[in-house]
Amino acid sequence: MDPLQHQIDRLRPRAEALCAALRDTAAALFDEPDIIAHCAAGTARYRLERDAASGADSLVAEWLDAHGYRLGMLVFHGDGSCFGEYDIVRAHPKRSRWFVEAVEAWAGAESGADGGRIRADFRLLEAP
Q1: What is the pLDDT of residues 28-60, one digit of tens each?
Q2: Three-state SS string across the chain, please?
Q3: Distances (CA, A) of 91 to 20, 37, 65
Q4: With a threshold of 0.85, does the pTM exceed it?
């Protein structure tokens, strides 16, 4: 098995958990279950990328729109930490002064003190 496929298979449960956190967090705020339905581990494009800080390979997954622009991504670092984001680009439904740029999810290594608990929140911009 090639190294890329090995990493995809090994990290699939973590990728699915990050995607679920992104989808659930976005759906709860906007009260739209399918607001980022395309955010699924099986629909992303994967590649290995050298982490400039550590020198280790990271697994990167991306979702692109029809024009090739990135809609979202997941990154799995060699130390076991991970990060994901997916663009929403909508006015905040409860705070008129804010705009929701994206939903983000992150976690430390599963062997860490909190067991790699995934947390999620929004990246906000102040509305003009």
Answers
A1: 999 999 999 999 999 999 999 998 888 889 999
A2: CCHHHHHHHHHHHHHHHHHHHHHHHHHHHHCCCCCCCCCCHHHCEEEEEECCCCCCEEEEEEEECCCCCEEEEEEECCCCCEEEEEEEEEECCCCCCEEEEEEEEEECCCCCCCCCCCEEEEEEEECC
A3: 22, 19, 21
A4: yes
Burial class (CB in 10 A: 0-12, 13-18, 19+), 62: middle
Q: How far apart are CA 11 and CA 63, in angstroms?
A: 17
**Strand 98-107 to strand 82-91: parallel, antiparallel, or no bridges (unpaired)?**
antiparallel
Question: What is the total residue count of the chain?
Answer: 128
